């Protein structure tokens, strides 16, 4: 074939092939360019905004289902500064502003209003420079929102930080009430300026009685995460899980209301029920404040515990803070009941006494030679407050003889003494649901002098809660109980998800030993004992006073400054509660600063009111008596 003919044929075939495909090519071009533009326009018409649906944090209620803490709905208003400079929404808002001032506005229905606004906005775009539209729009936004947000115009302009082009989003106001948020939302709708504003649903934790049981309840941070107390310890149950809603809005109909297209409901948190009775808590708070004021002290605690279950019925500490404002929390967040370490003094004398009785070494009636004010044995020197001579073991507790306590501890032996000390829970955290609990210090140094001081509550450090737990073991028949703060976890419909049962830690002493100890401790509150001021008319009280010189943080002791305490139970035979009172550094000069003169009368006032509240039947004849003689230790 002629090469020229061949070339022409190839060109013709190529032309035919291209011509044959021209229809398909045109269709492809149409789909890829023209039609895809339409598709893009349709997808671009839809603006999708995902909004979080906040889960409600569970409530906290007391043992009687009285509300203690709950969430209240709040809102946060933000501004999308990028959208603030969008000419389209700006002209709609300005058109809205202009037309609302006309007489005809009130005669138009909603549909007509939208139509008129769009028409007027279109004319504005053609007649006004974009910069002027944006500037007028910003002025309009400030005029509308300044006063409802609690600002002057210039203050709101400054908060919007318009000069900072790199900042795309700014929070205009936090912590807006639900009602105010609805009013602000309506303003954005009424004035067609919803486009640039972002309303975020938030929650605020509200404490019904913010200065009661503050250390126990704790608080949450700005992200609603528990940071202290029960709020922290039970955070996993109360926090819940947020949901969301995706709102679709037509970008070309900015006056239309957004439509939710996808919703995932939030899972709300569970509710926590405390063992605390807020009625009893109020009694402790009031009497602690009154006692500290009367005896001129700033720090102290009162603990009320159910000895049978280990439940903390009430627990107050000073200093304290307001859970809603949290002012001075850095200084006052320290919980005296569970974190304060102090030398317990004579309240510690139950260790040697209970141990010796438990092992059959002594009985409450066994006589002990307490000498006459000073006892020396080698390098050991034990002082007493008075020359007691011969006392029974029960009288050693009633008179609070240091020498007697040491002599009983010698019969028990150093190893057994520390065994019982350990069994009663000293030197170990109690395991209460409170962060930062102290374990105390109870070292067996092997030094005879240290051992003598240990026997009457020196050279050891304990917490008030440890003392309450130890006395509860005496009160309930010899079992150390783990202190409980949480009674149950409940769903929002009121059903119980989980109950917290009493947790026995160990049997410390025999039941018979505990009974003998209660009888012996009841003599302490007798008219001849050191705690006569702890007496409550109609009830037999058992307990023990404690007075120690305060430790100097730099070493040694702060002479003339004391920590005084009383640990008691009532009624003595079958105690319904154990109550521990500790007052740190009282400055009063009205009475001698002893546990019997300061802590014991506070106990008596608390115990009387608690008995009335609990409806306890009197166990003793009620007689009208003269004021009891002043105790001296």
From TrEMBL:
Penicillin-binding protein dimerisation domain span: 53-251
Keyword Membrane on entry: yes
Penicillin-binding protein transpeptidase domain location: 300-607
Family annotation (InterPro entries): Beta-lactam/transpept (IPR050515), Beta-lactam/transpept-like (IPR012338), PBP_dimer (IPR005311), PBP_dimer_sf (IPR036138), PCN-bd_Tpept (IPR001460)
One of the GO BP terms on file: cell wall organization
Localization (cell): Membrane
A Pfam cross-reference name: PBP_dimer
GO molecular function: carboxypeptidase activity; penicillin binding
Protein's name in the database: Penicillin-binding protein 2
Naturally occurring in which organism (per UniProt): Oceaniferula flava
